[in-house]
Amino acid sequence: MPSRAVPYLIVDAFTDQPFSGNPAGVVLDAEGLTEREMQAIAREINLSETAFLSRSKHPECRFRLSFFTPSREIKLCGHATVATYAALAERGGLQAGDRFQHETGFGPLPVEVRAGPRVYLGGEPWSYGAPPVSQQEIARLLGLPVGALETKVPPGVVSGRHLMVPLRDLDALDSVKPDLDGIAALSRQQDWVGVAAFTLQSCEPDVLATLRYFVPAYGIPEDPVTGVANAALGGYLGHHGLVPFEKGLARFEVTQGAHVGRPGRLFVEVEGAPGAVSAMRVGGAACVVARGEFLL
User: How many domains does the chain have?
Assistant: First the structure.
């Protein structure tokens, strides 16, 4: 007979509208769950990621978040983080103005709850490098002519995990036909999460950029709305001076997900200056769309 009921939520992140943005499973009380049980729950929920919230034993951290895909544990997931803390705020466990560190596979990372609620999380440690493949090969992997790539700035690898590819315009972004097997092979070879194609154009007012993110090495052909990739975009744009800094801070909005029928909006902040990025944050809203429980 089952000895424990474990409540869970389905939460759409980076949106305030149900059935849009990026869905995540969320378990707000994961105390006492084993890794095997968390993996089984994530496999049963069968979304790209499920987050499990527990108290942290780290002296600097208030909570610990563990993330599981249906097949494996991963170190960090932006949209599942936003989903978790937005759901906790809705339940009354957090309020606007709360700031704290939480424990992840990357160590302590900052989280802030703002009015809305809108949840902001710190990005991965900043680094930048040139990709190990040519622009011609990158264009081929995206199914584009090389002339569709932006010529003013080059592709770059941010935080050692995300290949950022600037495209000329929205038509180029709409025309992407990714070689998923090729992207998966290159991602595994380089230990990347995936490839982000973006343009500094948008169909929406007050939005700076539109992004698509391909993650076939993790079993996700195209991710709907991606926190870590948009934090990486913030670092990339800040590094190249493509966003204005005021008193050491740049802010802008990005849309993602319309190409897979799940539009979402992200709020990106970058600290530092052109060529001297020090930190990235990404924020957004979330809404609970389902509740249930597992009987263990």
Answer: 2
Q: Is 44 one of the annotated active-site residues of the chain?
A: no
pLDDT tens figures, 11-44: 999 999 999 999 999 999 999 999 999 999 999 9
Residues 23 and 94 in one domain: yes
DSSP secondary structure string, 19-84?
A: T-SEEEEEES--TT--HHHHHHHHHHH-SS-EEEEEE--STT-SEEEEEE-SS-EES--HHHHHHH
Q: Same structural domain for residues 212 and 84? A: no
- Same domain? 133 vs 271: yes
- pTM score: 0.93
Q: Can you tell me the distance from the alpha carbon of 282 to that of 268, in angstroms, rounded to the nearest whole number?
A: 4
Residue with tokens 């991963």: 74
Same domain, residue pair 278 and 289: no
User: Domain limits at 114?
Assistant: 5-122+285-295
CA–CA separation, 135 vs 10, rounded Å? 39
Per annotation, catalytic residue among 49, 103, 124, 222 = 49
